[in-house]
From TrEMBL:
This is Lipoprotein. It comes from the Bacteria. It comes from Hymenobacter yonginensis.
Length: 183
């Protein structure tokens, strides 16, 4: 077998493997938004023990709906979160972080891994236009501004020390995960 036909065979095998892997991905049955949607079952979270380690408390605040960015949660209305809702938010955010960390490792950016234990979360709950409970999550490294519990933290750049994600508590899905860039 010559080198050219061997390369063609290897490329064909690689493309077939990629196609098969992409078909195995759990895709949601209903599209909730036009963006990429993440979905995770509570049992699929890789590191549930990291959500609230012994001796450490989760650092989060629920901000009023009026603090939401203009571009988020359009057509939504204010709502409240229960303790169970907050647990689910953390499970979903951990799922989004796990996916982000896996993608960063595949790209060779191991220093870009996010450890949710080191982040503070600002949660803005809402009922979306369909009446589904959703939460916009703004997360940042623990060295946050002193007013983080009262006002939305907005920065330009900052790398993965800052990320945002939306979660839909009815469908138990996350979407729109994005870590900030670096200047």
């Amino acid at each position: 077998m010559n080198l050219n036909s061997l390369m063609k065979r290897n490329v064909l095998c690689l493309l077939t493997a990629l196609l098969l892997l992409s078909c195995q991905e759990n895709k949601p049955k209903e599209i909730v938004s036009d963006s990429t949607i993440g979905q995770i079952n509570a049992n699929e979270v890789k590191t549930p023990a990291l959500l609230e380690p012994k001796g450490q408390k989760r650092e989060y605040v629920i901000l009023p709906f009026s603090e939401k960015p203009d571009y988020m949660l359009k057509g939504a209305a204010s709502t409240q979160l229960t303790a169970e809702d907050i647990d689910e938010v953390y499970r979903l955010v951990q799922g989004a972080v796990d996916k982000y960390n896996t993608e960063q490792a595949h790209l060779g950016h191991k220093h870009s891994a996010v450890d949710l234990r080191r982040y503070r979360l600002q949660l803005i709950p809402a009922l979306n236009a369909k009446g589904e409970k959703a939460v916009w999550v703004n997360a940042f490294c623990s060295n946050a501004p002193t007013n983080w519990e009262k006002s939305l933290v907005v920065v330009n750049d900052g790398g993965n020390c800052f990320f945002q994600v939306s979660v839909n508590l009815l469908w138990k899905k996350w979407s729109d995960f994005g870590a900030n860039g670096e200047a």
